[in-house]
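Case study: DNA repair protein RecO.
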Amino acid sequence: MRIETKGLVILEKCVGENDRLVTVLTDREGVLRAFAQQAKKLKSSKLSATQLFSYSCLSIFKGRDKYIIDDAQPIEVFFDLRKDIERLSLAQYFCELAGALAPQEAEAGDFLRLMLNSLHFLSKGTRPNALIKAIVEMRMLSLAGYMPNLVCCAGCSCYEADQMFFLPRSGLIYCGDCYRPSSEQAVVLGRGALTGMRHIIYSEFEKLFSFTLSPKGLKELAKASEYFTLCTLERGFQTLDFYRQMKTGQE
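Here is what the predicted structure looks like once written out:
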């Protein structure tokens, strides 16, 4: 069976001297792993099309127990990501997150669209890195079925207050009157951060990246989104740890 699809390479591993084993996020087949034979040869059309971050047209043969990339033509390689170590490490984190959350052998167009737009804004530097990171984390978790309930206070149905308390493990928010300290650590959200988080979760995709926050609001949003990701998935990410190191080193 042959598959003609477009996909984003989210992981690459060298196999022998000339071959690659790549993990690709596709729109119709979800996440799949495929061999790209002779992909590292200089004259191969697969050389740039199967490297990390490459968005490519792929011709894939599906065998009984493996996929083989017969042909690959690059559409966008996001070269500018490699010019900045912080952006590069953040892009690698996005790829690892997609590998953990996107479905396998199932439709994943929304995941792919989110990744492509995120890498575009990240490579161009037109949005703060922290904002793009929060958007990817919250939206991707929501796509995967982990959408928090941010409509109103879980206690009294209050829509907003000067301060709301977000519980990452429960995925709920409480106003100051209803919140009671417990073993579950809460993240305090001002009006701006809560509005931003709601926008990420509930907005149409065309408007997803069309908002800004104050430095204080962005800091609150970034803290809440990362904590929500780690609590929900109950695991860490090596790429996230590396991004933190790079970010700290440049501050």
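For the exam, be able to explain this: Strands lie at 2-15, 19-26, 30-36, 55-62, 67-76, 163-167, 172-175, 187-190.
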